[in-house]
Amino acid sequence: MRILVVEDSQVVAKILRHLLQQELDCIVDIAPDLTTARTFLEQEQYFVAIADLSLPDANGGQIVEVVQQYQVPCIVATATLDSAQRKRLLSLGIVDYVFKENRFSYEYIVKLVKRLHRNQKIKVLVADDSSVSRNYIRALLEQHLFQVMEAKDGAEALALLQSSAGIKLLITDYNMPTMDGFELIIKARELYLREELAIIGLSNDTDESLSARFIKNGANDFLQKPFVHEEFHCRVLNTLDALEMLRLFWKQANYDYLTQVYNRRYFFDYFSQQMPKISKKKTQLAVGLIDIDFFKKVNDNYGHDVGDEVLIEFSARLRKIFADKFIVARIGGEEFVVALKGLKLAQAHQLFDDFREKLAAQPIVTSKGDLKVTISIGLHCRNADESIDEMIKIADQSLYRAKEQGRNLVCVSGLQI
């Protein structure tokens, strides 16, 4: 990533370069005037430009138009800005403006650049029956490099939420035909939890209770139309920051820190909630309890650091094969579980046995050399109305038999296949 800083103050330029390179993997070019900036823009492709309005050879803010001629997003850093200048800059479509007041101002700029970098991967769905309103919101969002999708009413928006993966933010108007904003939010919350999807409600209605009703129905925030650029961007960025923080907390609570698969608590909580649905739909469910053979010897002979390397690589291979479709969790030191929904016993067994064979054939590379690793697996398919705890106990009995019979085996519910 390459960033252009257009700033005639050497002190300010050095501060920005230091902070940007400290926080981001980037190259920072510094132009002290408009002429140098134009030369840089002709020679390099920039992710963003951070530009002062008053330069030795252009003190009227001409740098903004020049930067945008090269289709580079522009953040304005300025010491002063009157109302007329502000309106002009916003009409030009700058990302944001920041007053150069203290270190916190420069840290805000760095935070904004990091946000822009993340925004490139974030899908935002805008639901509004007014094409004028949708186009306006789309333009604001694209200034911040979001991927934008549109829906003309709640029903179309709901269909997109169901069919398009990766939407992180829904911005919805209240008054829409077919399905209004409230109904859309209620249905959206049936599909996505708060740590998965953020929602901002919009309305030009004068009803004072709307904001509370939006939030009580599941929205994260509410914005009254008409709104100004800065308020819109601040609400969107704060909402996404909160979503990412919530997602981080959720991940810390539900993922194993070392192996990056789900932890024991998540696994049992998830299936305790899912079992009634599985029973109702009579869905096939198999669990494979996996133990790394003689793992204690790895720790004893090579140290716990190497043991961790083995666990990390083993779980990476486990995720690669299973995690896209199935639930993978670490439930003990070297013990893992994979739950396979929708597979019959023979299919589940074949999948586990293929994984076991490939693991044994490909040693794990560690800092102390290559180590051959094998696993034993106890497999059980659900009968009648067994709970997840009961399934794990039966799988554990099969795992014990696999170890008794020489390890590097898959044993199934009292039978060895």
From TrEMBL:
It catalyses: 2 GTP = 3',3'-c-di-GMP + 2 diphosphate. Transmembrane segments: none annotated. Its cofactor is Mg(2+). Pfam families: GGDEF, Response_reg. The keyword Phosphoprotein applies. The modification 4-aspartylphosphate is found at residues 52, 173. Residues 2-115, 123-240 form the Response regulatory domain. GO terms for biological process: cell adhesion involved in single-species biofilm formation; negative regulation of bacterial-type flagellum-dependent cell motility; phosphorelay signal transduction system. The keyword Iron-sulfur does not apply. One of its GO terms (molecular function) is diguanylate cyclase activity. Keywords: Phosphoprotein. InterPro entries: CheY-like_superfamily, Diguanylate_Cyclase, GGDEF_dom, Nucleotide_cyclase, Rev_trsase/Diguanyl_cyclase, Sig_transdc_resp-reg_receiver. GO terms for cellular component: plasma membrane. It is an enzyme of class 2 (transferase). It comes from the Bacteria. Residues 283-415 form the GGDEF domain. This is diguanylate cyclase.
